[in-house]
Design a protein that fits this description.
Layout lengths: L1 E5 L3 H12 L3 E5 L11 E4 L2 E4 L5 E2 L3 H9 L6 E6 L1 E5 L2 E4 L3 H5 L6 H17 L10 H9 L1 H16 L8 H12 L2 E2 L2 E7 L3 H14 L3 E3 L6 E5 L2 E6 L4 E2 L5 E4 L21 E11 L8 E4 L8 E4 L13 E9 L10 H8 L3 H4 L8 E14 L19 E3 L12 H14 L26
Parallel strand pairs: 1-2, 1-15, 2-11, 7-17, 15-21
Antiparallel strand pairs: 3-4, 5-10, 6-10, 7-8, 9-10, 12-13, 13-14, 16-19, 16-20, 17-18, 18-19
């Protein structure tokens, strides 16, 4: 057996690693000039930082397994973090029951309902039973108008835009389970890797090369060679790969399937959100909070993530680093904006949150944008998730759609890769099961675990 993997993001690299451990000959073909996809990093303040903010959770068993297997478990660490909400022109801490009681935009009954519904979704609700239910409709009914208008609706609007009313409760169940699972006695501990995710990607790529995996970049797949409903090979601008009996695993976004000549696949109605992260390197701290959700209207970003309230500023030569994050639909103006236009849009509103903020604080601004940050999870999204084993012999799919109903993460990519390997006949039983809800759809009997 020979395995050809199209797409060198985390899912593709994890699948390559699992297969290579079983002695299978693997080739990974990546269209860009870097492996790692959304995990890529750049230099800032003398260190490396992710284009898009990253951390992991205490229950991420699959990621812990990979770090340990690569011999870099000692590079991972956990720290308590802080959350907050900007609402009605004020920053509120949002870490404990006491903080909830101090949250003035919501009355006492609304706070009780918020706590009860959050615990229910994170601990008891079954995602399979709630795909036909709109998250917003459910919150209005059970959490109440008070807390939904003050918190949930603004957050869903800024993340999902025109699709906010179509987000299934199943997605929120996955999100709440992920967050509550990383809390202990009210405090949330999140994980990070010394040297950034570059430590993981560099170590994984080196190990793959040592295992004989062929890593090819800067080669977009342009054509499938299919005979008698069986894939025989692929063509890029400069290469032809494949042989009799080879298996092919597609890990690229579904919207690119029909751009490949002779492709028997299409997106099946799946759409993607883009995301932009405007990263500020500052002389001063913007706030005392790591993760701040912006719940007031009129802001071009939905999250203010102050990375150096998580990782000490000393690791970045004393600079304070802030992400301004925003998802966008392809129909929104943000999808077409230049970096200069994005900068002009994002920075001025910061004074509404911190009146002392001045652009004089800014050392550097970095902007990163992707059109395939997350799938648009609408009602009954599982019906759109493709089967890993396609109707074309030896052609398989494992991509971001298979993360549903969970949230995209490095850990969940590993889970999806492990499930895909099983479908292809590659043993991956050594990859532990954590709390991930990913890899539950499209993988046959494997998905019921």
């Amino acid at each position: 057996m020979k395995l050809n993997i199209i797409g060198g993001g985390m899912t593709g690299l994890a699948a390559a690693y699992i297969a290579a451990k079983q002695g299978i000959k693997v080739t990974v073909v990546e269209g860009s000039d870097k492996f790692g996809g959304l995990l890529n990093t750049f230099e800032i303040g003398g260190n490396q930082l992710e284009y898009y903010y990253h951390h992991f959770f205490t229950q991420d068993a699959e990621l812990r397994w990979l770090l340990n297997d690569l011999g870099i478990a000692d590079k991972a660490f956990y720290k308590k973090t802080t959350m907050g909400v900007f609402r009605n022109g004020k920053i509120y801490d949002f870490n404990s029951p006491m903080d909830l009681l101090k949250f003035k935009p919501v009355g006492f009954i609304g706070k009780i309902r918020f706590g009860l519904t959050s615990i229910f979704l994170g601990k008891f609700a079954k995602w399979r039973e709630n795909e036909e239910i709109s998250t917003l409709d459910w919150f209005y009914r059970w959490a109440g108008k008070d807390i939904t208008d003050a918190l949930w609706k603004p957050m869903l609007n800024i993340k999902f835009g025109p699709y906010a009313h179509q987000v299934p409760l199943s997605w929120m169940i996955g999100r709440m389970a992920q967050r509550l699972g990383s809390r202990k006695e009210g405090d949330e501990s999140l994980g990070y890797i010394q040297g950034s995710w570059k430590t993981l990607i560099d170590t994984l790529l080196k190990r793959l090369e040592e295992m004989g995996v062929e890593l090819i970049k800067n080669e977009q797949v342009e054509e499938f060679r299919i005979e008698n409903n069986e894939i025989k090979g692929i063509k890029t601008k400069n290469l032809e790969l494949g042989g009799n009996g080879d298996k092919f695993l597609l890990t690229i976004p579904s919207i690119y399937f029909d751009k490949i000549k002779n492709s028997p696949l299409d997106a099946n109605g799946i759409e993607y959100f883009g995301a932009v992260c405007t990263i500020l390197e500052l002389k001063k701290s913007f706030s005392h909070i790591y993760w701040m959700n912006v719940a007031d209207q009129g802001f071009p970003f939905g999250g203010v993530i102050e990375h150096t309230n998580f990782i000490p500023k000393e690791q970045y030569n004393g600079s304070h680093i802030v992400y301004l994050s925003r998802y966008f639909a392809m129909s929104e103006d943000l999808a077409k904006m230049s970096n200069d236009e994005i900068r002009a849009l994002m920075i001025p509103p910061l004074k509404r949150i911190n009146p002392e903020f001045s652009e004089d604080w800014i050392k550097n601004v970095y902007i990163f944008k992707t059109n395939t940050a997350a799938t648009v999870c609408d009602l009954n999204f599982s019906e759109k998730v493709p089967a890993c084993e396609t109707s074309t012999k030896n052609l398989y799919i494992a991509n971001m759609a298979h993360i549903y109903p969970d949230e995209r993460s490095t850990n969940n990519s590993i889970r999806v890769a492990a499930e895909a390997c099983k479908v292809m006949g590659v043993n991956s039983d050594f990859v532990p099961y954590g709390a991930s809800l990913s890899g539950k759809i499209g993988f046959g009997n494997n998905s019921e675990k």
